[in-house]
Amino acid sequence: MTENLTQTAPPLAVRVATGTTVAELSGEIDLLVAQSLTARLDALTAATCPDLVLDMSAVSFIDCQGLGVLCRTRNRVLARQGRLRLITRDACFLRLLRIVGLTDVFEIHPRLPRLS
pTM of this prediction? Predict the structure, then answer.
């Protein structure tokens, strides 16, 4: 039996509202999608002062590789004097962030902030 381990990115719907980029992630964020997702998020954080909101509401699973992608994105945003917000109410994801000591590293909101 062989498994298809092709690399794909999770669905990522992107929109811009008043200078803020909102990227809605869904599905699994794991080893199989990390590289392609990193490339897409790198493109979204390439400008000076990026304002990025990652809506994680529809993410069903995230592993340590996925956390690495989020940390890399955060570091790129901060290096460019930008802002990154995560949107989630998922208790398992919030618990995972607590366990690995990342709760205070990310700006986390339960729902998408109002964007004019």
Answer: 0.89
